[in-house]
Amino acid sequence: MTISVSARFAFVFEEVGDALLQFEAAALPEQRIINSKTSLSEAEHVARVAAHNSVGERIWVHGSGRFEVRYSAEIEVDRKLPDLAELAALPTHLIPGEVTEYLFGSRFCTVEQFENFVDTEFVGTSGGARIESIRGWIAEHFTYDPAASGPNTNAAESFIERRGVCRDYAHVMVAMARASLIPARYVACFAPGVTPQDFHAVAEVFLADPDVSNGGAWYLVDPTGMANPAQTAKIGVGRDAADVSFLTTFGPASFACSEISVTLND
């Protein structure tokens, strides 16, 4: 399965400043970058650094004025897609150290506020069945509304409003999974079928790997229902959106434009 990605965005430094970018599909065992091209405006300094959990790369930019990014890629996705409902939760004491941080609350995904709700609403479920129940609940009760949230909206606020964009859906999914003692992280990605087409956000949960005794693996979950894991290319992962934004500026800056295209190849 291959997808083609084309992305362009621009922003303006109002004075000399810094920006941290993450917009390229990551090279991973389950997704191979067949070809790619990145074009960046001139800047005083540009440097590549490892991204969160070493999934993908970030780019530091130091400069002034208008800065434009153009990116294109063809990506082959070959991901294991078991039936989530059949997967068990990994016992807490067997969760690897590098996964443990995804049980804790984070800036946009508080956990304690959801514990009583998940214990009551999803009683009798566990593991992948709990995840499927959470995804179904969000799909039934949330409305996709681009005007309903902003960059500082957290999972608790989205839960109260019952509306938002993919970022908000993913935050609620992650928070509810963590409240269920299932590690969960936020994933920035490209996926065909997303409407309106843009950088997309989904969740990823850590459940038992049926092929590895006492082992676990990460599995993609899209509570918006728009992205198919078999056609989704990860850009990066993190505790929440703050860890994997395609653009984070340090100092005064304004966003200029963005155009994203993701197509499924025959």
Quick structural overview:
The chain has 266 residues and is α+β, with helices and mostly antiparallel strands. Helices cover 17% and strands 39% of the residues. Helix 2 runs antiparallel to helix 4 (166-179) and helix 3 crosses helix 4 (166-179).
Description:
This protein has 266 residues and is α+β, with helices and mostly antiparallel strands. The strands form 3 sheets. Strands 1, 2, 3, 4, 11 and 12 form a 6-stranded antiparallel sheet that branches. It has a 4-stranded antiparallel sheet with strand order 9-8-7-10, covered by helices on one side. It has a two-stranded parallel ribbon with strand order 5-6. It contains 4 helices and 12 strands, in the order ββββααβαβαββββββ. The chain starts with a strand and ends with a strand. 17% of the residues lie in helices and 39% in strands.
| Average of per-residue pLDDT values | 96
Determine the fraction of residues in helical runs and give it as a percent range: 10-25%
* SSE pattern, N- to C-terminal: EEEEHHEHEHEEEEEE
Into which percentage range does the β-strand content fall?
35-45%
Distance between the termini: 8 Å
Structural class, from helix and strand content? alpha+beta
- The number of helical elements comes to 4
Main β-sheet, in a few words?
6 strands, antiparallel
User: Roughly how many Å is the radius of gyration?
Assistant: 18 Å
Q: Which stretches are low in confidence, meaning pLDDT under 50 for 5 or more residues running?
A: none
Number of strands: 12
Which of globular, elongated, flat, extended, rod-shaped describes the shape?
A: globular
